[in-house]
Amino acid sequence: MAGSASRMRRHNAGVTRAWQRGPEGHNRPPEIPLAATERARLFSIIQAAGWPIWPLLLCSVIALALVIERFSSLRTARVAPPRLLDEVISVTRATLPPADVVNKLAENSVLGKVLASGLRTVIAEPRTTEAALRGAFESAGRAAVHLLERYLNTLGTIASAAPLLGLMGTVIGMIEIFGSQAPTGNNPALLAHGISVALYNTAFGLMVAIPSLMFYRYFRGRVDGYTLDMEQAADRLVPHLMRFVVERRHS
Q1: Which of 53, 84, 148, 187 would disulfide-bridge 180, Cβ 3.0–4.6 Å?
Q2: CA–CA separation, 123 and 236 (whole Å)
């Protein structure tokens, strides 16, 4: 029994060694990880595109960071919670809230900051006029819109500049192509490099510009929608707050 077990172990080891060899008995080369292969391919593309692709890479990193930041900052919960206006009207139905409640409202969201500006105006000046109250809302609304539009100009600039940077790379590639022409004959290496620079930069410029423009338009639409919501909320709150002004004038 011990001899047969030993022969079985030797047979299994031989089968394992045979599996590790190729059809002609040669050892198989070690497999390269897929991630390392992809990194090497990406580096070769960047190398073939030449130095004009580096500004495009920088633009792509900045655009990605801005898109992530705007997605986080323009969430509905952080800008205009759906039931915030109804809660403010409910709290101020009988009397104006104290200062700490108004401060918490201002810290709640962008819309809360706009509504808190109207409450502070009525609390600070009981005899305020409707025009002054609307002016306070408009001033706070302009500051809120400016906050919502932060970084959108940068994203729009990248969307406009990326095709131009790609075109610059195309022109540089064409210059290298014509530079490869010599009286004694063409230089295939320089010709291939010039074509790579021209095509890679054109493609990468469009790859950066198209998503940047799409996200710029998307975020611009969201800002416009939030601006309309804040205007409508201020219009609803003005007559509600003017009740306290009228009551204090008669008192």
Answers
A1: 187
A2: 18
Q: Model's pTM, two decimal places? A: 0.74
**Helix, strand, coil tally for the chain in percent (to 5):** 80, 0, 15
Residue with tokens 């391919």: 41
- Contact indicator for 56, 211 with CB cutoff of 8 Å: no
Separation CA 224–CA 152 (nearest Å): 12
- Paired strand residues for 186: 181
Which residues fall within 8 angstroms of residue 66, CB to CB, at 6 or more apart? 151, 154, 155, 158
C-alpha Rg value of the chain to the nearest Å? 33
pLDDT tens digit sequence for 4-52: 545 545 555 554 454 445 454 455 555 556 666 766 665 666 666 567 7
Q: Using one digit for the tens of pLDDT, what is the confidence trace for 87-130?
A: 999 998 888 899 899 999 999 999 999 999 999 999 888 888 88
The two three-digit tokens of residue 193, written as one number: 């490099």
**Contact by Cβ (8 Å): 238, 134:** yes
Residue 39: Cβ within 10 Å count: 11
Q: Is 21 exposed, middle or buried (0-12, 13-18, 19+ CB in 10 A)?
A: exposed
